[in-house]
Amino acid sequence: MLATLVELSAAAAATGVMGKCRSTNVTDLPPAPALPAGALSGMHEEVQSLRRHSDMVVWTHCGGNYTICLSTVPRWHQYTRAFNYDMLVIRKRSAAITGIATHAWDRIFVAWQLMRLGYEWALHVDGDTGVLDWKQSIHDFVRSARRADSPFLYLSQDVGKHGFLPAPCGPNNFGIFLIRNSDGARAMLRHVLAQSQRPGKFWQAWPAEQGVVNMWLSSQAAADFHQAPYGRMQRHLSKYDHPIHLRAPSKSVGGKSAGGKLAGSGSRSAGKSAGANALIEETLTTYQKAGVWILHTPAMQPHKEFVRQVYEAVERLWPIDNHAIHPYSRRTPIV
Fold this sequence. Notes:
The protein is α/β, with parallel strands linked by helices. The protein is built from eleven helices and nine strands. It has a single domain, classed as Alpha-Beta Complex (Spore Coat Polysaccharide Biosynthesis Protein SpsA, Chain A). The strands form two sheets. The chain has a six-stranded mixed sheet, sandwiched between helices.
């Protein structure tokens, strides 16, 4: 394993990946600029309007022109209704709370606010995600981890080589995470929030808060968090995994064709081809049979039509029946 990690790190350095991932270890750095006065006491407008009916909440961010949410959020609303969870969609930002922090940091501020509201569990999902295995509840996912030590954070190994790189480039993806209200969770959130006001592209662009989280987790006890293997909590459908949107209709879902080449400029993209739905459905069925909980389609804003087809296919193949699941009872603890 160590040899593999060294080899992957070397390969990443050769391709320039590590050049973008300078250390976010803050131990030897000057203190970060102070947080805005309202950072720890204020709340985003949508959080203030949230009426708590459950001990669990699912939330996402869909600000600006992030139109992928039009394809993903409706299914999350259906999922939360099926289990009687609360649902929160953040569309507005608040500089009085976040200061100079870019939108990537907002999930940390909102997680802090949800802990203050008293939620026992909060599941963050990027706006470019959709639940694939909708019959799996948050209870089910936590129990499937088979952890007797009750971690306060559940997250996924990142895709491809990033899942084996050391912090800050890896090994965890922070687009989807489940956090349990606890002293450990609040300590992590405060640590990450404290770095959010550092100026400059390095701190405000990728890997931004994900790098800080990974650095912090690398120094924590294994009992504090659970890393789900890639393909369990989430799996990508993107340029990183099954890039069928970049391949000609004749290409297989597995990513190889007779010639083994990507579609050229003269080929129609899979998202516009007559065979697109067949490719999409075959891929999604493979994911579903493998036990993937959440589908993730990152960096797909230029392929909006393809993404729309993907989430339409998800709904067509596995429509959510809001009457099929016994509603989650807030009196039922996760054990």
